[in-house]
Amino acid sequence: ILSFLFIFLLVIVETFLDTKNNFEFQDATVTIVNIIILGKFDFNYINIISMTFSVLLATMQFYPEIHNGRIRLYLHLPLNHNKLIFLMLFSGLSTIIIVHLLFTIGYFFILNAYYPIEVFFAIYSKLIPIFISSILLYLATTLVFVEPKSMKKISYIVITILLLMIYLNISIKKYFISYELNFFVIIVICAYIIAIFEAFSSYKKGYTK
Fold this sequence. Notes:
Helix content is about 75%, strand content about 0%. It is built from seven helices and two strands; from the N terminus they run αααββαααα. The radius of gyration is 20 Å and the shape is elongated.
């Protein structure tokens, strides 16, 4: 996690240097028009880092709990397993939210120092789908680890890949924001959370340590 926080910091520093360079050596009006009107801004590296962070975070949390097709869930702790699942998901999702919040704050101060606030909002409107996608991918990765049925694992992988491709293509590469699609993805996120609890409940009792 600390490694990715350092990478996010490097991205913010790179954005600062690039923004400063564009402001000093290019026409600021052209840059503003390109970002606000044409939506020209390179989100690829942000997207890749965010997606990778979500997958690795879920892997670090849940892969160690899988043992011979069973789930250990640190049962040496005096906690109900549903409460423990909630705490694990809460800690993972909180980490993603905090990282993206710090990233957004860094972008706000950098862009607001050189350009009108509209430039930040134009970029932030495209960062939101990346943030939502990272949460979806985190939950999907968790489902792949904890779901005992192979066919369901495959279905979750296929659904997530197709949904992310459509969602990010429309939300970032196009010139408009689909609020209906945002709402639909949030519904899928809620469904994934429910599916995670159902996957845990499908295991037989007698969990191994």
